[in-house]
Design brief:
8 helices; 302 residues; alpha/beta; six-stranded antiparallel β-sheet; Rossmann fold; seven-stranded mixed β-sheet; Methionyl-tRNA Fmet Formyltransferase, Chain A, domain 2
Length: 302
């Protein structure tokens, strides 16, 4: 089948590799443009760009599609059977949605209509959902509102992190989109109710609010690691909290009970692995050996 692939981050790479490995003709790969990264701010290609070039595929990285009629015309001229979209990052105008013979198929990392939007993996963990999954969706002009073709579910356990789900859903999506192309299942409209939205996260979401219940903060740590991360201030240190667990204890929210166990609005959160700015990750006991923290210490605002 003659395809275009449209994706940018690590999440998208397994699907591209699966499509290429299955013998589909990848006529073009679309990614986000290279952007400055690192201390030197050198232009860096996104993971899909790197993977596509390694496969010898033609890569396009327009800064915009809606404002680029030439890019739209070039896409239509590819004569595609379908386009596969996975976390691409640009909105496709209607002319591009309509151009492939079988339309544009999106690999969305949730069980639609739950968690439409930019951050479905993190949102499922934050909400304490028991499961999430991948939906292969026929794209339309709405925000993740298109008809569903295939679904697959993944459980969320008490220790599941967003990073765990990212890898599981990425692999699941690669397999499901191969099935969708091969089986051409009939589209099913999304349910009229039950839609929820997962907003895009930023560093403004990182500080931990110790007035919240410990179980909620535990989910927050698991959802926001590795990015944008969760943070707190302990003395002169701004700590990134990489791993934690809720425990049955009580005290004034935001104060140290013992070690790195912090009282919350309900219960307490024991920090298990942390990272100072500019340092590597360390276990809590290693941090305490270098920086003892007396009980009763109040954590400050980041």
């Amino acid at each position: 089948m003659r395809l275009a692939f449209m994706g940018s981050p690590d999440f998208s790479v397994p699907a591209l590799r699966a499509l290429h490995g299955a013998g589909h003709e990848i006529a073009a790969v679309y990614t986000q443009p290279p952007r400055p990264a690192g201390r030197g701010q050198a232009l860096a290609r996104c993971p899909v760009h790197v993977a596509a070039e390694a496969m010898g595929l033609a890569v396009h990285h327009p800064a915009s599609l809606k404002r680029d009629p030439a890019a739209q015309a070039a896409f239509a001229a590819l004569g595609l059977d379908a386009a596969v979209v996975a976390a691409y990052g640009l909105i496709l105008p209607q002319s591009m949605l309509d151009a492939p013979r079988r339309g544009c198929l999106n690999i969305h990392a949730s069980l639609l209509p739950r968690w439409r939007g930019a951050g479905p993996i993190q949102a499922a963990v934050l909400a304490g959902d028991d499961e999430t999954g991948v939906t292969i969706m026929q794209m339309d002009a709405g925000l993740d509102t298109g008809a569903m073709l295939l679904e697959g579910a993944v459980p969320i356990g008490p220790h599941t992190t967003a990073a765990d789900l990212h890898d599981a859903l990425s692999s699941l999506g690669a397999g499901l989109v191969l099935r969708a192309l091969a089986e051409n299942p009939p589209p099913r409209a999304q349910p009229a109710d039950g839609a929820t939205y997962a907003p895009k996260l930023s560093r403004a979401d990182s500080p931990l609010d110790w007035n919240r219940p410990a179980e909620e903060l535990d989910r927050r740590v698991r959802a926001l690691t590795p990015w944008p991360g969760t943070t707190c201030r302990l003395g002169d240190d701004v700590l990134k909290v990489l791993e934690a667990e809720p425990v049955a204890s009580a005290g004034v929210p935001g104060t140290v009970l013992e070690g790195l166990t912090i009282a919350c609005g309900t219960g307490a959160l024991r920090l298990l692995r942390v990272q100072r700015a500019g340092r590597g990750p360390v276990a809590a006991d290693a941090y305490l050996r270098g920086s003892p923290v007396p009980a009763g210490t109040a954590l400050g605002l980041v």
